[in-house]
Design a protein that fits this description.
This protein is an alpha+beta fold. It is built from 34 helices and 32 strands. Strands 2, 3, 4, 5, 22, 23, 30, 31 and 32 form a nine-stranded antiparallel beta sheet that branches. Strands 6, 7, 14, 15, 16, 18, 19, 20 and 21 form a nine-stranded antiparallel beta sheet that branches.
Length: 1023
């Protein structure tokens, strides 16, 4: 079959060249269309419900909103998890489904079930637009002479609408600023003087703000629509609303209190650099949309708004654009590829001594990659930092390299002038075609553990596996079609196959080493086995991690303050922390986000502050400073702030971790139980044990208890004596103290709440609240303190739930140590030192649980893959003995990869596993080539030793080219430090180290093993 493909390609040479050009330009165009994302969305289909009930405590939110919704959603088809958070005034519920579930069907199912939930009057859950990698663009709306309320109004009613009209933008979240409200602050003394109660005020305002329609009226030849106009337009209209009439005298709102334009009670605040209070917007990407085209449209819209559509003096200033990260990463990957391609070309030229042959092989690298991009666009597969960074073009080039070297050798050593060049090429292809095909097939089979990943790992690594698979297919096509055709054009002149000076030295040294090794077979095998044992022991020193952190060029730092901290104190701390960040010259811009936005899309409170620190390019940093050192420097300043726990991450990384675990932190322990106080007590014990584990950083408990509450417990008997129900008393508490929005004021298309409450001096402390009057049915006024017990108690601040159970999270990060070793030590210590009551349990969330799940799955799938590889090797040789020989030799090839990880102190990760697979593929390719050639010489009549030596001599150059090409080609990637290099670095280090031992294995150890194994056959034949 392979020979037929080569023959057909040579017959249709010009067609193949035309298809090659088409692949070149088509690939370039496909790369232009390719959807490149910073990070794959690892979260399963998720529907997030946000429900706000202002003024209600966490316990009430849980009881009245969270639990009823959770119960209604339980049993939803394909549901996997329900995670919720109940906090002051807000319920946030994330509903997770199977990875292969249809998100839009899931959303509809959730909405259908919400119809059956009974919630407090006026409460309506909304679907959140947020998802793990949605935040693509952040900006500040600034105006030097404008108030925060005016800026926030422009942001909400003009800028946000403009961005939402952009295709691919699902929503815009606004943080900071103050939301405009109309306030009616009532003087309770005047209510008493005029004999009016608060309920009458609210009813009057609500009834005095409406337009009506009176159908139409025909006057003459015209039809007139009839409209009754009564909407409130301004402060004067509010002031002149009549509440009641006493003896012919109207009592207006302006008689009973003050009418002002104010703002909603603040739940959050944003500061940038030295500006302590600004308005921020976050543009959210629509699921399935391509980030780069959307970002381009966003920038066009920003320019359009800044150049005339916004009021004079107001502008949009960008401080985060994911385009920068994507472009920087792509540039890093391209630089690594170009450097590697140049080095591969140099290696090929050094080994072949023939410029055109080296050029043919080098040309297959970009063509294979462009073919990959074409296929990815065709199937709708996006590229990301992991998939682009994990392409091992040193492996991709091997198929064409072996093919061209075989053709080069055939043409240079031909003794039959009458044979045409096409026939020589076909003969060369027939010799190596089978090893190339089966070796590539074996690499694909070796990738089966990655292809078959499910869940979060599958979402992260499936694009990488698909990319690698397309690249291998492209490399095979180039090797069997374009490479032979180019050889027929460029290698026609008489070819002199004389070793270059370097190869002569290498060959002479190698043959001498082979003579020595063949005479000392047991010593060679024993020492090689010792190296394998050494590598196995060294493997125990390697730490394990799910994936190396991808550098984003920023810091995302979360500050967790005491849960009972006031808004003003938290604001002062946030301002101080920003200045601490700016003390490091590497920090370009620092943004603080305190609390949450008005729409509740970030469910937290002002005990939580998050900081985005954009870093300057590494070239502008102080000499010798690394990011780890910069974090330590900043952390040393932050430690001077007592009672605040910090967690260091990056923008995308933080969102991804939160989406996967449901906790704002890199890793966490979830302690499940029922009693909040007992859970918190046990969490403190767990925290104290975790502090003794080396490598654990950013440790902290998400406290549940500690929120001071002013409890107004209605006395039912006392209220009944005055003819009052509990709801009557609570209505006064809600409206007079917290304020109640009774209607809305329209300003064109804008609308703002009109809130009624008492003047501040009548609700500022316990005594004044106790003196609030409650009207009885007979007109009497009773102080609130006679109808209710007013006390101060500590209650729940926040309540976490997962699958209908409460839990408390203990978050932590791991730095300066591997994740697996750190967690396993922590597990041992916790099992020995912490005893949990019956019904309480711990679960580990974050990267560690994903790592363990994958290790369990790999333990099952890897043996299956090895069995398939053995079958393919058997099909290659038609000999079980040779198949087992090649497979058994693979561990020798992986020695260098393991030792390189140990030497460079690189943790073992999925990226390193890909490097191991690549090394395995090259080792098998070289082994198949060598043993196939030895078998060929034996069939030609050569003796065992002679065939082994001759096969090793002939195959030395292609095997060295394959191994050294892969090693040298990935050398730049193994040393790279730029943004985007982190995913490729473990892979590259494994391949660079592994190729060195792979070359020794294939060229020295494998021939020795072959002779040992086949010596008995040879003796039997002689007998």
């Amino acid at each position: 079959m392979i020979t037929k493909i080569v023959e057909m390609s040579l017959v249709q040479r010009f067609l193949v060249c035309a298809l090659g050009l088409l692949s070149l330009f088509g690939g370039l165009y496909a790369f232009h269309l390719l959807d490149i994302v910073a990070y794959p969305d690892p979260a399963p289909p998720m529907v997030e419900l946000i429900t706000q009930l202002p003024g209600y405590s966490a316990e009430e939110i849980e009881r009245q909103i969270t639990v009823p919704i959770e119960v209604a959603l339980s049993g939803t088809p394909r549901l996997t998890d329900i995670r919720s958070l109940s906090i002051f005034g807000l319920s946030d519920i994330k509903v997770y489904f199977d990875f292969d579930s249809d998100l839009f069907r899931d959303r509809q199912e959730v909405l259908n079930r919400l119809n059956a939930v009974q919630l407090p009057q006026g409460v309506q859950p909304v679907l959140s637009p947020w998802w793990a990698i949605a935040e693509i663009y952040r900006y500040e709306l600034s105006g030097p002479n404008e108030s925060l309320t005016h800026l926030k109004t422009i942001q909400d009613w003009k800028v946000r609408r403009a961005f939402k009209r952009i295709p691919g933008v699902v929503d815009v979240t606004t943080l900071g600023g103050t939301t405009k409200e109309y306030h009616v602050d009532i003087d309770p003394g005047k209510l008493i003087s005029y004999g009016v109660n608060l309920s009458q005020v609210m009813t009057a305002l609500s009834n005095s703000n409406a337009n009506v329609g009176g159908n139409y009226l025909t006057i003459g030849a015209q039809s007139y629509n009839i409209r009754g106009l009564g909407l409130i337009n301004d402060l004067d209209d509010i002031e002149n609303v009549m509440v009641a009439e006493k003896e012919g005298t109207p009592i207006f709102i302006k008689t009973l209190g003050k009418v002002t334009v104010g703002h909603r009670v603040r739940l959050g605040k944003v500061g940038i650099d030295d500006r302590d209070d600004v308005v921020e917007g976050v543009v959210l990407l629509q699921r399935g949309a391509q980030a780069l085209p959307v970002l381009e449209r966003v920038r066009v819209k920003v320019k359009e708004l800044n150049e005339g559509k916004l009021p004079s003096g107001i502008s949009i200033n960008t401080f985060y654009d994911r385009t920068t990260l994507i472009h920087t990463t792509v540039e890093t990957v391209i630089d690594i590829l170009l450097s590697g391609m140049v080095l591969v070309f140099v290696i090929l030229f050094v080994f072949l001594g023939h410029l055109r042959a080296a050029l043919i092989v080098a040309l297959t690298i970009p063509l294979s990659l462009l073919f990959t991009f074409t296929m990815m666009v065709s199937v709708g597969q996006s590229a990301n930092l992991i998939s682009l960074g994990a392409i091992d073009f040193g492996i991709i080039v091997d198929a064409a390299l072996v093919m061209v070297e075989s053709i080069f050798f055939q043409l240079a050593n031909s003794k039959t002038p009458q044979v045409t060049i096409h026939q020589h090429i076909i003969r060369a292809a027939r010799r190596v075609g089978r090893p190339i095909f089966f070796s590539t097939a074996i690499i694909v089979v070796a990738f089966v553990p990655l292809f078959t990943m499910t869940g979060v790992p599958g979402k992260i690594f499936a694009p990488m596996s698909i990319t690698y698979g397309f690249a291998l297919v492209g490399a095979l096509l180039m090797a069997f079609t374009l490479a032979p055709v180019l050889c027929s054009f460029l290698l026609q002149a008489p070819i002199k196959d004389s070793d270059t000076a370097i190869i002569r030295v290498v060959r002479r040294t190698y043959l001498g080493l082979m003579e020595w090794a063949m005479d000392r077979r047991l010593l060679v095998v024993g020492s090689s086995t010792g190296l394998v044992v050494l590598a196995v022991l060294a493997l125990q020193l390697l730490g394990g991690e799910f994936m190396p952190a991808l550098e984003e060029g920023n810091l995302w730092v979360r500050a967790t303050m005491p849960v009972d901290i006031s808004f003003d104190q938290a604001d002062r701390l946030a301002n101080d922390i920003r200045r601490m960040f700016k003390a490091s010259p590497e920090v370009e811009t620092v943004v603080s986000q305190l609390g949450r936005p008005d729409d509740g899309t970030d469910p937290t409170s002002f005990f939580n502050a998050e900081f985005l620190a954009n870093l300057k390019p590494a070239s502008a940093w102080r000499r010798g400073l690394t990011k780890e050192c910069l974090i330590e420097e900043i952390e040393s300043r932050l430690k001077t702030i007592p009672g605040v726990i910090f967690n260091f991450s990056q923008v995308i990384e933080d969102n991804v971790e939160e989406a996967m675990s449901g906790v704002k932190g890199e890793n966490s322990i979830k302690l499940f139980g029922a009693d909040l106080k007992l859970m918190e007590t046990k969490a403190v014990e767990i925290e104290s044990v975790m502090r003794t584990v080396p490598g654990v950083k950013d440790l902290g408990i998400f406290r549940l208890i500690g929120q001071p509450n002013l409890l107004i417990q209605v006395d039912r008997e006392a209220s009944a004596r005055y003819g009052l129900r509990v709801s009557d008393v609570n209505a006064v508490v809600q409206a007079a103290i917290g304020g109640l929005a009774v209607t809305q004021v329209y300003e064109g298309e804008k609308r703002f709440d009109l809130v009624v409450r008492f003047l501040p001096e009548y609700r500022q402390d316990v005594e004044s609240i106790g003196n609030i009057s409650v009207n009885t049915p007979d007109g009497a006024r009773i102080p609130l303190k006679q109808l209710a017990a007013i006390t101060m108690q500590t209650g729940a601040f926040i309540i976490y739930r997962e699958n209908n159970e409460r839990y408390i999270p203990i978050k932590f990060s791991v730095r300066d140590r591997d994740l697996q070793g750190t967690v396993e030590e922590a597990q041992v210590k916790l099992s020995q030192q912490v005893t949990l009551p019956e019904g309480y349990r711990m679960e580990w969330a974050g990267q560690y649980d994903q790592l363990k799940e994958e290790q369990k799955r790999l333990a099952k799938i890897v043996p299956v893959s090895l069995a398939v590889i053995l079958l393919l090797l058997y099909a290659t040789f038609d000999s079980l003995k040779n198949a087992l020989l090649v497979l058994a030799a693979v561990p020798f090839a992986l020695v260098g990869g393991v030792l390189s990880l140990v030497i460079t102190q690189t943790h073992f990760s999925i990226s390193a596993a890909v490097g191991m697979i690549s090394t395995l593929g090259v080792a098998i390719l070289g082994g198949v080539l060598l043993i196939s050639r030895i078998e060929e010489f034996r069939l030609a009549g050569l003796g065992l030793r002679q065939a082994v030596m001759r096969g090793a001599d002939v195959q030395m150059r292609p095997i060295l080219m394959a191994t050294m090409g892969a090693a040298i080609g990935l050398l730049p990637a193994s040393l790279a430090t730029g943004i985007g290099s982190q995913a490729q670095k473990p892979l590259a280090r494994v391949v660079v180290g592994g190729m060195l031992t792979a070359a020794f294995l294939i060229l020295v150890v494998l021939p020795v093993l072959y002779e040992i194994i086949h010596r008995r056959d040879n003796l039997d034949k002689q007998e």
